[in-house]
């Protein structure tokens, strides 16, 4: 896809975006969160949410064993539950994950670009990305240069994303805005558009490594951005909230927001993902509850 | 792909087969034995029967209220009155779900709104005024202001319990006793409130509830009350003002509206669309301060309309008791035919009508959310209050033109302004002739905030310190 815009054009377009009224945005998100999803629609929502998870482990203590365990869970979470969309790991674990997931249809996503802070020189970030792609990553989760963004150097942020996009080759590029560090809704909207103009395939809220991760209002705002971007350019971009979504109830609120903001076109793991780890087991427990009518417990789902 | 399964509210209130008039702390039948039925507008099935108050009953109720005022409520200290009001507020909270469901069944409005708005806001009104009861000397209305005496109150069907709270809470806090007539199509929550007053141990005669239609209301207005408070149509308000003219009765009126919601080109568009939707489709548009005219700057009109229509497509119309319903039933067959008649004039006068594709239930009174574009100031749908889910969209070129068009109505209840510029908000608010101006929001209410109109939207304020004046002899 990419973009036909120059950095200066993209920066001025982004600066001209209309503002976001925080009170109104949060009220709308709260309104969507009151939808009551029960019985058959809940069962479908749970399976859909499972299929949208990027099952994630991003720890200094990650080992090949841990990654293989997570990969097995991603492929076959529980009984006839669907597979997750991807397993998300650090670049050093991509080869292990790729091997474990070969032929399963579950993708390997790798964080890159000096995740999570991105505070390393651009050539290091690009080398990081290329290494992940070489090791077999299907998807790259990059971080934007928040320092440059907050300093007002939108052009630099734009060019860096374009460079990472080029380095990602055929891998789909998820651009992490780290909304908790951008702080304002206006900044989130600007960063979303900047990333999309620069060629993002997905825009993603957070690394999960700072105090404030995905929230429903921020994700709703990003959904509005991808909706408007497609209307303006014809290019569809996905959305991935990450961090802090731990239970079924919350996941369903996000799906309701997708349903009522973006509609069917985004209701698949091609266009919407959850970056999460503990969410999966809660979805599985709720799934068991719907099937058997009894609440299970943490010992009835696997620890991975 | 992602359909929501039915999510019906499970609580069912204990609705009796028959209710009497609530006079002097007791439920009694009408002297002449008259009764009428209350219908669930979403099914057209009768919910219960209720006594209809005639002149004799009105006289009895006013006498009971007078006795209560002279012997108990008038002499009682403000602190003691406050205790009763706090008790009523807490009981309303405890029974919130039952009241919410009953309101949805009798009125047709969605449970989402009764649960999250009507009932909590009604309780808040009692809490707020309970706090005033022993502090009236500090309301800026003179030292130790006195109550008026017996107040006759007539309320509409659009927010039955909430309008009751707006009327009764300040009246009681100020030391008055009341005779209240709920609307003929929605007496249920007023009668449940009467039961709640019994449970709260409120002295007999302080609150009297007289269900009935227009004749009951006019008998109440003509009775020996000291004050009349009315919320409803401008036509009836005018008749009430005539009826009390020349008497010592005080009167406050909260009447119709045709509010303009002004969207400037620098507005936060997504939130403005949300506010426009809330402004006109909240409570099926049965809101006197509804933003029934959208005035949008021509340069952003196409974009706003496109988004507005996409948003309206997602509104869910249907069973009021389903927790996912956004728009419920129209309150009565009569109101439905009024809405239909006015929308037909819109089409006849050349405006373009648009409605989303949505299924409506077979029984009951329903009307699709409707957006008229290409509306001109001279059309009836731009001038007359429709009181239904019908939005008229007009455009403007400059801020001055927006204000001129917004003010070009006999009404003056509310207005909305959408812009990211604070200075423009203040500029517009100074010029809009409306009792309430909302900035970057719409249909927000708070017990502490006075509400009321200008011009044909009535006079007097409800809520806040200012609202106390309507129930004190100052």
UniProtKB/TrEMBL annotation, chain A:
- Per the record, a Pfam family? DeoC
Provide the top EC class.
lyase
Gene Ontology terms for molecular function: deoxyribose-phosphate aldolase activity
Gene Ontology biological process terms from the UniProt entry: carbohydrate catabolic process; deoxyribonucleotide catabolic process
State the UniProt keywords alphabetically.
Lyase, Schiff base
Where does it sit, as one GO cellular component term?
cytoplasm
The protein's matches in InterPro entries, at most eight in alphabetical order, are given as: Aldolase_TIM, DeoC, DeoC/FbaB/LacD_aldolase
According to UniProt, this protein's pathway is: Carbohydrate degradation; 2-deoxy-D-ribose 1-phosphate degradation; D-glyceraldehyde 3-phosphate and acetaldehyde from 2-deoxy-alpha-D-ribose 1-phosphate: step 2/2
List the catalysed reactions: 2-deoxy-D-ribose 5-phosphate = D-glyceraldehyde 3-phosphate + acetaldehyde
For this protein, the record's CDD domains field holds: DeoC
Q: What NCBIfam families has UniProt attached to this entry? A: deoC
Write down what this protein is called: Deoxyribose-phosphate aldolase
TrEMBL record, chain B:
Looking at the record, the residues that make up the Aldehyde dehydrogenase domain are 27-473
Question: Gene3D superfamilies of this UniProt entry?
Answer: Aldehyde Dehydrogenase, Chain A, domain 1, Aldehyde Dehydrogenase, Chain A, domain 2
- The regions listed as transmembrane in this protein's record are none
Identify a single GO molecular function assigned to this protein: oxidoreductase activity, acting on the aldehyde or oxo group of donors, NAD or NADP as acceptor
Q: So which domain of life are we looking at?
A: Bacteria
Alphabetically ordered keywords of this record: Oxidoreductase
Which InterPro entries would you find in this protein's record? Ald_DH/histidinol_DH, Ald_DH_C, Ald_DH_CS_GLU, Ald_DH_N, Aldehyde_DH_dom
Tell me the SUPFAM superfamilies matching this sequence.
ALDH-like
Which residues does the entry assign to the active site, renumbered to this chain?
A: 254
UniProt lists the family membership as follows: Belongs to the aldehyde dehydrogenase family.
Write the protein's name.
Aldehyde dehydrogenase family protein
**What organism is recorded for this protein?**
Glycomyces albidus
């Amino acid at each position: 896809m990419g973009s036909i815009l120059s950095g200066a054009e993209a920066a001025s377009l982004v600066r001209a975006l209309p503002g976001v009224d925080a009170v109104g945005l949060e009220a709308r998100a709260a309104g969507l969160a009151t939808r009551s999803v029960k019985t058959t629609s809940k069962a479908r929502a749970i399976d859909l949410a499972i299929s949208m998870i990027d099952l994630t482990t991003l720890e200094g203590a990650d080992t090949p064993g841990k990654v293989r365990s997570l990969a097995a869970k991603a492929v076959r979470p529980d009984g006839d539950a669907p597979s997750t969309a991807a397993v998300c790991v650090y670049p050093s674990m991509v080869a292990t994950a790729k091997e474990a997931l070969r032929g399963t249809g579950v993708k390997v996503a790798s964080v890159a670009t000096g995740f999570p802070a991105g505070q390393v020189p651009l050539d290091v970030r690009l080398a990081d990305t290329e290494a992940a792609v070489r090791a077999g990553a299907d998807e790259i989760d990059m971080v934007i240069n928040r320092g440059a963004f907050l300093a007002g150097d939108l052009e630099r942020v734009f060019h860096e994303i374009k460079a990472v996009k080029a380095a990602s080759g055929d891998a789909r590029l998820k651009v992490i805005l780290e909304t908790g560090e951008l702080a304002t809704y206006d900044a989130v909207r600007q960063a979303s558009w900047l990333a999309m103009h620069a060629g993002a395939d997905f825009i993603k809220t957070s690394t999960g490594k700072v105090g404030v991760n995905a929230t429903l209002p921020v994700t709703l705002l990003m959904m509005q951005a991808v909706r408007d971007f497609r209307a303006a350019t014809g290019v569809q971009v996905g959305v991935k909230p990450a961090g802090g979504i731990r239970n079924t109830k919350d996941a369903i609120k996000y799906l309701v927001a997708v349903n009522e903001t973006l509609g069917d076109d985004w209701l698949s793991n091609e266009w919407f993902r959850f970056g999460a780890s503990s969410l999966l087991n809660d979805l599985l427990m709720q799934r068991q509850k719907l099937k058997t009518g009894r609440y299970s417990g943490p010992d009835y789902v696997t620890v991975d | 792909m992602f359909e929501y399964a039915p999510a019906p509210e499970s609580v069912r209130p204990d609705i009796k087969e028959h209710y009497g008039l609530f006079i002097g702390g007791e439920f009694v039948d009408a002297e002449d034995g008259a009764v009428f039925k209350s219908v669930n507008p979403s099914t057209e099935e009768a919910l219960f029967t209720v006594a209809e108050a005639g002149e004799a009953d009105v006289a009895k109720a006013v006498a009971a209220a007078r006795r209560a005022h002279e012997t108990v409520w008038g002499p009682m200290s403000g602190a003691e009155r406050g205790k009763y009001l706090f008790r009523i507020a807490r009981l309303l909270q405890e029974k919130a779900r039952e009241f919410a469901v009953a309101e949805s069944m009798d009125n047709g409005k969605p449970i989402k709104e009764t649960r999250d708005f009507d009932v909590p806001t009604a309780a808040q009104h009692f809490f707020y005024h309970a706090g005033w009861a022993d502090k009236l000397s500090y309301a800026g209305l003179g030292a130790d202001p006195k109550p008026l005496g017996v107040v006759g109150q007539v309320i509409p069907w659009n927010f039955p319990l909430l309008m009751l709270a707006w009327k009764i809470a300040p009246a009681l806090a100020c030391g008055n006793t009341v005779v209240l007539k709920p609307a003929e199509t929605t007496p249920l929550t007023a009668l449940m409130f009467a039961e709640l007053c019994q449970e709260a141990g409120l002295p007999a005669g302080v609150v009297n509830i007289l269900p009935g239609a227009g004749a009951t209301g006019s008998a109440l207005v003509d009775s020996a009350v000291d004050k009349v408070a009315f919320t409803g149509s401008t036509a009836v308000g005018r008749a009430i003002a005539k009826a009390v003219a020349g008497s010592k009765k005080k009167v406050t009126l909260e009447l119709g509206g045709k509010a303009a919601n002004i969207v400037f080109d620098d507005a936060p568009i997504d939130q403005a669309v949300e506010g426009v939707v809330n402004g006109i489709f909240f409570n099926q548009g049965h809101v006197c301060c509804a933003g029934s005219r959208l005035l949008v700057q021509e340069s952003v009109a196409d974009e706003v309309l496109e988004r507005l229509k996409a948003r309206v497509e997602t509104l869910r119309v249907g069973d009021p008791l389903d927790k996912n319903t956004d728009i419920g039933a129209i309150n009565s067959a009569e109101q439905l035919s009024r809405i239909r008649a006015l929308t037909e004039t819109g089409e006849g006068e050349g405006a373009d009508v648009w409605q989303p594709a949505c299924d409506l239930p077979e029984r009951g009174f329903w009307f699709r959310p409707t957006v008229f574009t290409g509306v001109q100031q001279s059309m009836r749908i731009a001038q007359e209050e429709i009181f239904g889910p019908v939005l008229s969209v007009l455009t403007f070129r400059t801020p001055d033109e927006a204000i001129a068009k917004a003010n070009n109505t006999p009404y003056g209840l509310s207005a909305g302004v959408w812009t990211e510029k604070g200075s423009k908000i203040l500029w517009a608010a100074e010029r809009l002739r409306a009792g309430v101006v909302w900035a970057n929001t719409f249909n927000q209410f708070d017990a502490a905030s006075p509400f009321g109109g200008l011009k044909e939207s009535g006079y007097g304020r409800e809520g806040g310190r200012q609202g106390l004046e309507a129930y004190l002899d100052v």
